[in-house]
Write a structure and sequence with these properties.
- The chain is mostly helical.
- Helices cover about 70% and strands about 0% of the residues.
- Helix 1 runs antiparallel to helix 3, helix 2 crosses helix 3 and helix 3 packs antiparallel against helix 5.
- The termini are far apart.
- The relative contact order is 0.20.
């Protein structure tokens, strides 16, 4: 691989990691928790599952940020998606369905980014880890 190709591959990997980082940093699950949702007594378990997703997002954002920096990149976060601002004060089951949809979209985006990280093992592993976590999170929300 020549140096131009290596540089481009490296930059693409950092861009893919930054996209994953931004999605974890702007955690939809954390936004839901901050949006003062209506939580009925029967939704307490669902609330705990959403809290677990938010905690994962926080920890994973830190890990992805470290990986980006280790690759000599700069973690970048675009503005928060304004669409979720319409979710305030809704019932938790409705918000969980929205979260599941958002996570499915994020999984597709992550999987679409995989070719850009193939030549950078640490980036590839990070995106595979995020994809696996997203699948588990989506599955956990189906139980509601």
């Amino acid at each position: 691989m020549n140096s131009d190709t290596a540089t481009k591959t490296h930059e693409q990997a950092i861009a893919a990691l930054n996209a994953a980082f931004a999605r974890r940093y702007h955690s939809v699950a954390q936004y839901i928790l901050n949006a003062d949702p209506y939580v009925s007594p029967e939704d307490k378990d669902l609330l705990r599952r959403i809290q677990a997703i938010a905690e994962y997002d926080h920890q994973e954002a830190e890990r992805l940020s470290d990986i980006i920096e280790d690759l000599d990149g700069v973690p970048f976060v675009p503005p928060f998606d304004h669409e979720v601002a319409e979710w305030n004060y809704l019932a938790l089951p409705h918000l969980a369905a929205n979260l599941a949809d958002a996570l499915r979209t994020q999984l597709k985006q992550c999987e679409k980014s995989m070719p850009s990280v193939e030549a950078v093992p640490v980036a590839r592993k990070a995106l595979l880890d995020v994809s696996a976590a997203l699948r588990k999170q989506i599955e956990s929300l189906k139980a509601s």
